[in-house]
Amino acid sequence: MIGRPRKVPVKTDADVSRSVVETIRFCRDLGFDEQSCSRIGTAVSELARNIVKYADRGEIVLSQLSEENRSGIRVDALDIGPGIADSRAALRDHFSTSGTLGLGLPGVKRMMDGLEIGSNSGRGAKVSFWKWLYTSSMLNESAVRGDLSKAAVRKMPTVRRSFQTSGEYGGLEYGAYGICCSGELVSGDGVFVEQKGDSVIFAIIDALGHGPRANA
């Protein structure tokens, strides 16, 4: 069982790595699969690096979310720094105040189920995101029936309109991003990566059709 929230102080690059490790452990305890754990860890890495880069110090707070028919994780990144002058602009692609590509917060928003920014100029910032837990069986049951009823959608709160994955095998870095057909809740595309000895198998999968049947 997950008890009270876990807090990870962040001030140095080493703290960024520690926050990611703690996040992945927390996600595993909640029941997230490895891909989701890695994705949430990547989002936490982005927020923790922003603390190191823009603020004096801060912390990552990991909390369990629980509602009547679903559970998940909430992450709060708190810092003591100059704050975020324009939170709306910070969520636009390619916006940056430090000369970087500025893809961090928009990327986190796309990967998660929700994101909020709170900031007071000169008094620090708070960036929060949350991700709901779901199981593949929820999706497969609906696919077998051939429909996605309103009740089924409520049971699958984290099925996203896109997927994203990245990693490294044998010194080879890879990354993939996909988005489903307009009007659908899930994608029939996927990515498969496996290392066998000195070789790496990388497959991009395009299933026939769209939506839950193709996804299943």
Q: How would you portray this structure in words?
A:
It is a single chain. By secondary structure, the chain is of the alpha+beta class. Helix content is 33%, strand content 33%. The chain has seven helices and nine strands. It has helices spanning 13-30, 34-54, 87-90, 104-111, 136-145, 150-155, 211-215, and strands at 6-10, 57-66, 71-80, 114-119, 125-132, 162-169, 172-179, 189-196, 199-206. Strand 6 (162-169) and strand 7 form a beta hairpin. Helix 1 (13-30) packs antiparallel against helix 2 (34-54) and helix 2 packs antiparallel against helix 4. The longest helix has 21 residues, at 34-54.
In sequence order, what are the helices and strands, one letter per element?
Answer: EHHEEHHEEHHEEEEH
Strand content: 25-35%
What can be said about the biggest beta sheet?
5 strands, antiparallel
- Read across the widest sheet, the strand sequence of neighbours is 1-2-3-5-4
- Termini separation comes to 30 Å
Helix content: 25-40%
Low-confidence region ranges: 93-103, 135-160
Q: How confident is the prediction overall: mean pLDDT?
A: 75
Helix-strand category: alpha+beta
What's the number of helices? 7
Shape: globular
Count the E strands.
Answer: 9
Rg from alpha-carbon coordinates: 18 Å
How would you concisely characterize the structure shown here?
The chain has 216 residues and is of the alpha+beta class. It has helices at residues 13-30, 34-54, 87-90, 104-111, 136-145, 150-155, 211-215; strands at 6-10, 57-66, 71-80, 114-119, 125-132, 162-169, 172-179, 189-196, 199-206.
